[in-house]
User: Fold this.
Amino acid sequence: MPPTSPVSRDIGVLRAGWGYASVTDKIAGLVLTRPVRWPWLAAFLATLAGTLVYLGAITYLFIKGVGIWGINIPVGWGFAIANFVWWVGIGHAGTFISAVLLLLRQRWRTSINRFAEAMTLFAAGMAGLFPILHLGRPWFAYWLAPYPNRMDLWPQWRSPLVWDVFAISTYLLVSALFWYLGMLPDLATMRDRAQSRGKQVTYGLLALGWRGEARHWARHETAYLLLAGLATPLVISVHSVVAMDFAIGNTPGFHSTIFPPYFVAGALFSGFAMVLTIAIPLRRAFDLKDFITDVHLDHAAKVLLATGSLVAYGYLVENFMAFFSGDRFEIAMTVDRWTGAYAPVYWSMLACNVLLPQVLWWRCARRNTVLLFFLAIFINMGMWMERFTIVVQSTHHDFMPSAWGLFIPTRWDWIFLFGSISMFAWLFLVFIRLLPTISISEMRELVKESA
Amino acid sequence: MTAQDPRWALMAEYETAEALVAAAQTAHDAGYRHAEAYAPYAIEGLAEAVGHRRSAIPALTLAGGFAGGAIGYVMQWYAAVESYPEEVGARPLHSWPMFVPVTFEMTILFAAFTAFFAVLLANGLPRLAHPIFDAPDFDLATRNRFFLCLRTDDPAFDEAKAIALLDSTAPLRRAEVAR
Assistant:
């Protein structure tokens, strides 16, 4: 009797009873055979409407200028930059999961890396828009790129804002390459499983003729590991550079050496919160509880706890250093943070980012999906409030009392925030219906390992 | 030179990864240097079994990274020192620490693109048409089946021996792949 195809045993990150064929058909079927159902359609139409509103708002912004927002001196950055930092941070979890957990040989990465990377791309895309929207003269956005020109001008290489252009665009491109390279074998699966000619041709073109030859797999694996090795320092560098946008300025509340590591921890914190926000409804809607198990949620919750603790340490050090430095402006800014106009935001942030995540010390909380989902939403909000506090509260209360001023968001500020969230969600909804949400080839490998 | 064989290869299909690795090893031991093995995921040891030794991708990636870093650094140095020197309070024009972040990002960017295109180039992709795609059952190579091909243009190829070799590995089926 010849040996038969392996069937998975329950290893926590994969439930029992799955084989090569069944994981393939399950994941490919989500795209190819599953009919469109009303919850997806309702979410799709709602977020599409939000996306259209967002695009309309962008058009209006380009016509009228940034004056439609509540920004004015001294608060010149406002929501746009807070949104930018928030979105970049969210984008960090995908690459962290794909690259760092790959290098660390964490098996729980396998079933969540694909959609986490998609999340990264879309979040980084949303982030990349905001600095351009925020330009006073957005039609000169291309001046950020270095190219020989008759104006004889170059970007200012000593400015972190220019570093940011390089960091974010490198991050977007490398994440896209990593995502696509990892998806090639799955696109070939889609090509071979598709029934209609149109789908066969489309997936076939995207798969570039992948046929799964042994040497191809070997080179693919080498390149994938290399990209992971390159993406690992990249992911650390990106939010460090974003942090330096602030830290190099001498404004109280910005000028702090802890910013780069504290921003990276905050990025992973908000990114994992977004992964949970997406994974929990996704695994329910697509019946993926055998692939994205309670063990995955538990691990992600532990990462939340760890990175949340680092963020809490960051808050502590910020406050401590303000007083330890003896700098009057730092102290005044810190007291304003506690008691000033934006104090409710600061205290809500502490509640969301420091107080609430403490429930994760208990295993029963980490395994409670409803609780985790709402906690993740609160952490998302808390991290946005952190970005808001850093951007707005610091600048509204700097050195001279005569230069102090309030920032009050207009309705356009809110439209841009919720518009970008809508567009992000819309892109994600499109993604889960067009591309395999979970890496099929890596799931087959996991089946083999577990059997 | 004899007339070209109308067949591209003889192919055997297997149920498990172990069977494919064993068969690939048998073919390699029998002198086949161009045997091709197809699998739905990256099987450890399979590439070695068909005789794949090492690839130039890591070295190329390293070179790409160095090139990117050099381009990034020289670009900044040229802009800040040669093309548009701007003195600010007698600070040095060649302020190298401030050039590190962009140099780093360019290193990663170029290395990543090199790795990506190196793997496509080395694999001969994109190649949308290939004889193997017309082979029976081959759509399962991206699902749950494993295939070994003995190419007719392999110097070691001999029809009777190849058939005997494939049959000795107990495949699910054996088939011919048209050119």
Observations:
- DSSP finds 15 helices and no strands in chain A.
- The radius of gyration of chain A is 23 Å.
- Chain A has one domain: 46-435.
- Chain A touches chain B through 66 residues (CB under 8 Å).
